[in-house]
């Protein structure tokens, strides 16, 4: 008799099929995503609908209006506030402050008499109460439940009927009837589907906390990021109190917007003007420093770039960076050596930002070049100058986006001169300065012209006076 064909196995991430089970998908290289394919089912027939389709112009938007979370910086990231029925995924490294932030959001929501349910699967109820006492988050409309079973969580939702639901975290909640451990692919998919279904049907704003892997990506199946409405990343350095919430996906507002926070023992507070944290105010001119203006979402942030160049006794000089993109630093150093006459192949180069800021935008290339050239020659750049521009491999400066907003922010903080990319000219000289937002804006065509303008280098080499601007 002919043998019955074995059931195929399919990857839950990309749909790749194989005749036998393997631990790693051969297509998307995901671990533990290959499961036995279910038996084919009959084609679905037409069935009853929950509500008839209506013209889009007749759909009411009042039920989906933004409601403030009570934390202005989070409202900025979300595009205006919390939307009823929205599913929000907040991910971040352990200890970065996810639970503290969401407890503050829950307390602020309960303070305006909107019932809130905080479900914790990682801590006991008494531990969360201790944090709430420390941060001032004890409110009558804030309900707390310590559960790890999905059925119990759904029962709490039926009894409390909250306007805001916080689940901390989804990797600790398990669905009954599944053999896999909590945090597994099938468990996370089932729990997320149930919570999102309740959020949509009952118009409950649901915030789900997610873990991250070693490389910083969200743990669990990638489908989790697709089914939620908003994906937020909580970022921060363990050595600093400064934290940033970045929107990676947002169906209700802009993407890549950021919110700034200060995490302390008293809780978490919004930082509405974080620029001062990343700029060191020197009383005198210091070689090896320059101020860059980067865009974090729609917000311009000033950050000071510092460089140190020392002779190296090694055959392979060191290139060490902190808060900057190492590959772009290597490119900037090559351009400085090739087009500006700076001999850096026998020197160690150290480049970093002040205050733990992370500046990876190409618009900071010119500030890095000025700082490195200033450290190499030992000549400080003039005070009150900001430099913006992307450097090409030919040494040219490329224009950057949102230049008026960057200049306005620098002018607000007291800077007097901005060196920006301009049109390339035959002589390679700067254009006539113009005044924008109270600042002198000088356009330069290439990085060599910018360094000569700032007095960091000159035609003959060292220019100790730096009187160009």
TrEMBL record:
InterPro entries: AAA+_ATPase, DNA_repair_RadA, P-loop_NTPase, RecA_ATP-bd, Ribosomal_Su5_D2-typ_SF, Ribsml_uS5_D2-typ_fold_subgr, Rubredoxin_2. ATP binds at residues 92-99. It comes from the Bacteria. Residues 63-212 form the RecA family profile domain. Gene3D superfamilies: 3.30.230.10, P-loop containing nucleotide triphosphate hydrolases. Keywords: ATP-binding, DNA damage, DNA repair, DNA-binding, Hydrolase, Metal-binding, Nucleotide-binding, Stress response, Zinc, Zinc-finger. GO terms for biological process: recombinational repair. A motif (RadA KNRFG motif) lies at residues 249-253. SUPFAM superfamilies: P-loop containing nucleoside triphosphate hydrolases (SSF52540), Ribosomal protein S5 domain 2-like (SSF54211). GO terms for molecular function: ATP binding; ATP-dependent DNA damage sensor activity; damaged DNA binding; hydrolase activity; zinc ion binding. Residues 348-469 are annotated as: Lon-protease-like. One of its GO terms (cellular component) is cytosol. PROSITE patterns: RECA_2 (PS50162). DNA-dependent ATPase involved in processing of recombination intermediates, plays a role in repairing DNA breaks. Stimulates the branch migration of RecA-mediated strand transfer reactions, allowing the 3' invading strand to extend heteroduplex DNA faster. Binds ssDNA in the presence of ADP but not other nucleotides, has ATPase activity that is stimulated by ssDNA and various branched DNA structures, but inhibited by SSB. Does not have RecA's homology-searching function. Plays a role in repairing double-strand DNA breaks, probably involving stabilizing or processing branched DNA or blocked replication forks. Belongs to the RecA family. RadA subfamily. The middle region has homology to RecA with ATPase motifs including the RadA KNRFG motif, while the C-terminus is homologous to Lon protease. PANTHER family: DNA REPAIR PROTEIN RADA, DNA REPAIR PROTEIN RADA-LIKE PROTEIN. NCBIfam families: sms. This is DNA repair protein RadA. It comes from Nocardioides islandensis. The gene is radA.
């Amino acid at each position: 008799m002919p043998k019955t064909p074995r059931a195929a196995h399919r990857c839950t991430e990309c749909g790749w099929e194989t005749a036998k089970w393997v631990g790693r998908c051969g297509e998307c290289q995901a671990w533990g995503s290959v499961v036995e394919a279910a038996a084919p089912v009959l084609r679905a027939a037409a069935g009853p609908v929950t509500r008839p389709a209506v013209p889009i112009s007749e759909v009411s938007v009042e039920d989906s209006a933004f409601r403030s979370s009570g934390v202005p910086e989070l409202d900025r990231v979300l595009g205006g506030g919390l939307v009823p029925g929205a599913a929000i995924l907040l991910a971040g490294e352990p200890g970065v402050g996810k639970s503290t932030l969401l407890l503050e959001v829950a307390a602020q929501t309960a303070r305006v008499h909107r019932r809130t349910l905080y479900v914790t699967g990682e801590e006991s109820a008494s531990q969360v109460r201790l944090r709430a006492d420390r941060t001032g988050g004890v409110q009558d409309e804030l309900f707390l439940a310590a559960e790890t079973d999905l059925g119990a969580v759904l029962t709490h939702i039926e009894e409390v009927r909250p306007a805001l639901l916080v689940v901390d975290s989804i990797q600790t909640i398990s669905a009954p009837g599944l053999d896999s451990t909590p945090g597994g692919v099938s468990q996370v998919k089932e729990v997320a589907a149930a919570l999102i279904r309740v959020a949509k049907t009952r118009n409950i704003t649901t915030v789900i906390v997610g873990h991250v892997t070693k490389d910083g990506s969200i743990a669990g199946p990638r489908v989790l990021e697709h089914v939620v409405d908003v994906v937020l990343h909580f970022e921060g350095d363990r050595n600093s109190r400064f934290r940033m919430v970045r929107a990676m996906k947002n169906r209700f507002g802009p993407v890549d917007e950021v919110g700034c926070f200060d995490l302390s023992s008293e809780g978490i507070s919004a930082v509405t003007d974080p620029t001062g944290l990343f700029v060191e105010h020197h009383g005198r001119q210091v070689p090896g420093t320059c101020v860059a203006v980067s865009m974090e979402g729609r917000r311009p942030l000033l950050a000071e770039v510092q460089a140190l160049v020392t002779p190296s006794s090694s055959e392979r000089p060191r290139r060490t960076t902190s808060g900057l993109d190492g590959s772009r630093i290597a490119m900037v150093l090559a351009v400085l050596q090739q087009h500006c006459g700076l001999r850096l192949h026998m020197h160690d180069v150290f480049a970093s930002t002040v205050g733990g800021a992370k500046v990876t935008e190409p618009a900071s290339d010119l500030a890095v070049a000025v700082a490195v050239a200033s450290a190499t020659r030992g000549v400080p750049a003039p005070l009150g100058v900001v430099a913006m521009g992307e450097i090409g491999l030919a040494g040219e400066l490329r224009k950057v986006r949102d230049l008026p907003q960057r200049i306005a922010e620098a002018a607000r903080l007291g800077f007097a001169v901005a060196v920006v990319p301009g049109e390339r000219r035959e002589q390679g000289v700067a254009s006539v300065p113009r005044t924008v937002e109270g600042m002198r804006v000088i356009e330069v065509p290439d990085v060599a012209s910018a360094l000569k303008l700032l007095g960091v280098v000159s035609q003959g080499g060292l220019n100790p006076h730096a009187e160009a601007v």
